[in-house]
Fold these 4 entries.
Entry 1:
Amino acid sequence: MAAPSNGDTDSQTKQPRYASWYSIAPTPFVGIEHPFIIKNVEKGVQSLGGLSAVSKLAQNTKERPAARLYFKPGNRESKPVSARIAKTSDVVLKVTLPKRTGRKRKRGSDDPFEASSDDSCPQASSQRTGTPRIPPASAKASYVLRSLRDNQEIYEVEAVGHVNETHRFRTLPDFVFSTKNNAFMQKLRDTTLTFEYEKIKNFEFDQSTGVQQVNDLVPPPQWNYIPTPFNY
């Protein structure tokens, strides 16, 4: 936990301070309010354009791009949604909790977990030494809240940085026209949309004459022209 600043009175008003002042590390963070529930971090990064696109969001430049969300990464027919950058004053907290492995309580009760008397138990040795353990990344909110209540004197909280801007997705996504059974679009996807010269040369239009039945409809570049939802 960050150490409070010296002095019990304000240097300007000379009034007593009723709360401690804590210094926050100058490490900048960029917030992204992802509309999905992220269970796989790798797929979550891919939905934002990959590591290269995410790293550009943290660059210390005046013209930083806004985050873009891809609902179907790799599908060129699914257009991304651009975020809006909002100025924020948030703090990133690092909470370190001990594991509950080796702790037990009476069956059917809601009492706090008690440390095992077994000396070989890693949790018991953790409580004796006071060394906190980080819970698994997949821990649910209920797990973390219960661990905070059961380890009020052991868990640690540290302010690791501040968030000056947050990327928020508030616009409507565009519709996606399925071209799974569209022969023309499949041919276009396998040649032109690969952006490879040797494959692009293989794309040709059907130049046969006469009346033909056209079953392949090319979808428009955009379906929805209203990015902001109406409050009906």
Entry 2:
Amino acid sequence: MGFLDFLTDAGLSTLEDWVTTRSYIYGYGPSQADVVSFKALKGPPKVEKHPHAWRWYKHIASYQSEFASLPGDPSKAYTTYGPEASEVAINPKNAPAADDEEDDDLFGSDDESEDEESKKKREENLAAYKKKKEGKAKPAAKSIVTLDVKPWDDETNMKKLESNMREIEMDGLTWGASKLVPLAFGIKKLQVNLVVEDEKVSIDDLQAQIENDEDHVQSTDVAAMQKL
């Protein structure tokens, strides 16, 4: 039983199928099973080909500072986790989702001998549990952006420029660190990092608001942008 070699496409496919319906390799929280599986990968899987494996990888990466303290046996190989060998050999994509089986077990087995009242109660509890799981909000898509804000000349008050810029408030906008970067002839530009929620903040609108400070700002440019 267990995962295949993650360095192969088949191995990544077994991981993709496994975490499609799971947040963790084993159980309902991060453990050494996630740690050894994470370390078996050379880097994040390609999001275009293995989106669920990529999501799991990024999620587990957020626990890296806690790897040593997570529960479980760190000596176990990652190949001891994952689907049964028979499931992999037949077709991983057709394997039954373990989460659904576990959900059923949370509220008792579907035994033919149970009375109608118990069966009805179990089904109601199961339906409520699944509805609660489906209702969990997905994390908002965010991007980290680096903006270059250029002044008119070397006499521009850069402290006032930055102060005016940081007074801009938008739902989904978080200002980060900034620094002055030399351009030429004694002129320095302000380079600032910020995090935005993609659905709430338009970078074009933000640049327009910054450039409204015509006494200090000549122009703005996006120096870098990356999805979180």
Entry 3:
Amino acid sequence: MPLWEISSICYLSEEQQDKLAQAVTSLHSEKFNVPTLLVNVTFTNVATTNAYVAGKRSRANLNMIKGWLRSGPSRTKDDYDDLNASLARAWEEIVGSEGVHKLGGIFMVGGVLSARESGFLVPAAGGYPGWIKENYVHLKQRADAGEELMVEFLHELRTRECFRDLLAEAEG
């Protein structure tokens, strides 16, 4: 959680997809202090998709970034608007803004009721401190067993300032 879907009418190279996925992950993670392991990004080429605007067939708005997110009292409309602007800048820097490369829209939908990531139920927005403490033993077991995503996840918790104290408490 979150799930970001990037759809495009234009061809996105693997390098562009990698850069967009890294930008979305970084921007979301930093804005909401979410571990990067929990940020998912998918890409769909919609070049053959029929789309309509005002009831008329249109190809103008098919480059889109859509996010299914959790909302909560710790996340304001200004937070989402700031993330929206940052995502638009990232698209323009990586893909461009002319012709078929122009971004048609960014949509963030809140209110995800439940989510499961890597076998764990995901907490409500802002609930990561308790979730990390509650699941630390299982996360560590999986990391110790060599599960690469869990090894990376614990490394991130140890190295990112916003998670360091929390991990120390969980390990304590």
Entry 4:
Amino acid sequence: MKPITALLYLPLLVTAKPLSKRATLIPNIVFNDQSSLESYFSYNYPWGDTHNGAARMVQANSVASSGVLTLTSHYTGASDYAYNSGTVFAKQHFSVPAGGGLDFTASFIAPVAKGTWPAFWLNSDSGWPPEIDVAEWKGDGKISFNTFNTSNQVEAHDVYYPNPAGWHTVKAELRDAGNGLDVKTTFYIDGSVVTSQTAKGYIGKGLYLIIDYQMEGSSGSPGPTTDTKFQITGLEVTSV
């Protein structure tokens, strides 16, 4: 009778990769069609259909198709609001947690003529500020990056906006500044850092994301009397 040989089974050791905290909050398919847009965005502003300019927002002027959101401004000549235009805001509210962050990325064809006032911005969902203008064009051939700590304490940075008829990618990285209270925002154009700003006390504050095509107001007047368009593609929002 042969002796029984005991078999020793050793556990297989697998080195686990650390789990990434990154999560997609708005996917880059959001502008594939109107249904996709409406899954993540509502029409107009969170508070209504007007805001600090000469345009009244109407649903029909915000159209998503083939991955592109097109906001069209149409001159009506009305005495109160001389334009019908388009604006949408995200249904989800966003906030930067202590130790965490958010990334907002999108590509734009943005008009820069006098009287055109497109913007991609974050606004407080309760009171004001917070406000971070991820990208704002105010009719002067420049793109603006702004952070409002109060109405009088504003960090603002303007740079020349090249080739406005072509696509340009803007990104804002919002991060805990390291003290669990403030948010540091780093702004990029086409992959290059443009500026960084500090938003005091923004940790945990709720934010709306607004994609907005307002007219005149801060961009001057008179504005154009022919149709103009603000186009957005590749929008993605992630938490980190």
